[in-house]
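Shipment paperwork, digital attachment
Item: protein structure file
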Amino acid sequence: MIPVTPSISLAEGEVEVRFIRAPGPGGQHVNKVATAVQLRFDAAHSPALSGPVRRRLARLAGRRMTKEGVVVLTANRFRSQERNRRDAIGRLVELIRQAAAPPKPRRPTRPGAAVKRRRLEGKRRRGEIKRRRGPITPSE
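Attachment content:
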């Protein structure tokens, strides 16, 4: 089990880990050793996630979630498979932890008197500037 929050934990079988070749420079080592990790987590069919958490996860994951609801994370920060695997799982846990936190409800507020006064004063000043741009009348 992978603990995420006190109420959410993922089964090891829900997370699929594949090792792929890491991009970038590295010479012979990078060409023959698959150290990068591609982690796949089927969030759409996971029994550990509730509907609201799943929707928030989809919004947070963005392009990292496929149309089928699979979260795909690639980790290639480190040179060893194990460290990249831990990094990918840690990033998935953090993403789900953020999605599990319910959003704080917004309390609508009214603008204060000083803010209204400043706004109206700015509008008056701007209107005066525009009024002065008119044609000049010849004075006698």
